[in-house]
Amino acid sequence: MDDLANLCVFLMNNYSGDETVNAGTGKELxxxxxxxxxxxxxxxxxxxxxxxxxxxxxxxxxxxxxxxxKLGWRYxxxxxxxxxxxxxxxxxxxxxxKA
Length: 99
What we know:
CATH architecture: Alpha-Beta Complex
Shape: flat
CATH topology: UDP-galactose 4-epimerase, domain 1
CATH class: Alpha Beta
Oligomer: single chain
Radius of gyration: 17 Å
Number of strands: 0
Distance between the termini: 17 Å
Largest sheet: none
Order of helices and strands: HHHH
Number of helices: 4
Helix content: 40-55%
């Protein structure tokens, strides 16, 4: 979340174009890897089931972040750390009944 907010502010100050600028790490990640990261962060120890009868969707899950990089922006938070921070924030609010 912080990286996205930082990129938005960065673009407001450094970009006047009309093309899409993606935020991300530039690292490819499979849906399985993402599910495993989320499971780890939330301490889920159950089985993750995959419905192989459904289409896979896009063959690659990778945003092109070259425009942001060319402008001088870099991400600061690894995906797992960002998911962990978001989950901790959710828990803090959920425990207060504000989820």
